[in-house]
Design goal:
It is found in: Secreted. The longest helix has 19 residues. Helix content is about 15%, strand content about 40%. About 10% of the residues have low confidence. It starts with a helix and ends in a 13-residue tail after the last strand. An eight-stranded antiparallel β-barrel has the order 1-2-3-4-5-6-7-8. With about 190 residues, it is of the alpha+beta class.
């Protein structure tokens, strides 16, 4: 009898804790963007990669040698297409340019990467001013990425991102050092 009462108390305590410590919701962006402008217009332009999170370190390994990344998102040459140009500054000082083409999914903000049929990208809002969060999934990985219009967003933005992704079972976290200037010079 005592064991049944104890088990019931533990069960209800677990329900209570779960209801108190639920993950905050992050809302997926809709086809209408910022200021009533239609997606993807508000998301075009320059973005800085700030941080990443994933269930394992291996899913973030591609970012380990990176000091900073600057992205420029532009409308593609065809409808329902976005062109992404990146300048990746490695920790060793090398600069690596990259290009991707994203295909927009009709009626949503889901993106498909050309040449990578297994990769899916979802865009999410961020409580951080000038911020956006991406969830990338592919064959064998899932990761969250935080981008911002500023190369140095408020620290609370990174803390909120880390807290949210931790709650979503991401145990690995990576913050880009951003020690080198975006033109290759060292920051002081």
């Amino acid at each position: 009898m005592f064991h049944q009462i104890w088990a019931a108390l533990l069960y209800f305590y677990g329900i209570l804790l779960n209801s108190i410590y639920q993950c905050p919701e992050h809302s997926q962006l809709t086809t209408l963007g910022v200021d009533g402008k239609e997606f993807p217009e508000p998301h075009l332009g320059r973005w800085y990669f700030i941080a990443g999170a994933a269930p394992t370190k291996e899913e973030l390994a591609t970012f380990d040698p990176v000091d900073n990344i600057v992205f420029n998102m532009a409308a593609g040459s065809a409808p329902m297409q976005l062109q992404l140009h990146a300048t990746i500054r490695m920790k060793n000082g090398l600069c690596v340019p990259r290009k991707w083409i994203y295909h927009l999914t009709e009626g949503s903000t889901d993106l498909r990467t050309e040449g990578r049929p297994d990769m899916k990208t979802k865009l999410y809002s961020s409580s951080c001013p000038g911020g956006i969060m991406l969830k990338e999934t592919g064959q064998g990985y899932q990761r969250f990425l935080l981008y911002n219009r500023s190369p140095h967003p408020p620290e609370k933005c990174v803390e909120e991102f880390q807290s949210l992704t931790s709650c979503l079972d991401s145990k690995a976290f990576l913050l880009t050092p951003r020690n080198q200037g975006f033109d290759g010079t060292r920051r002081m």
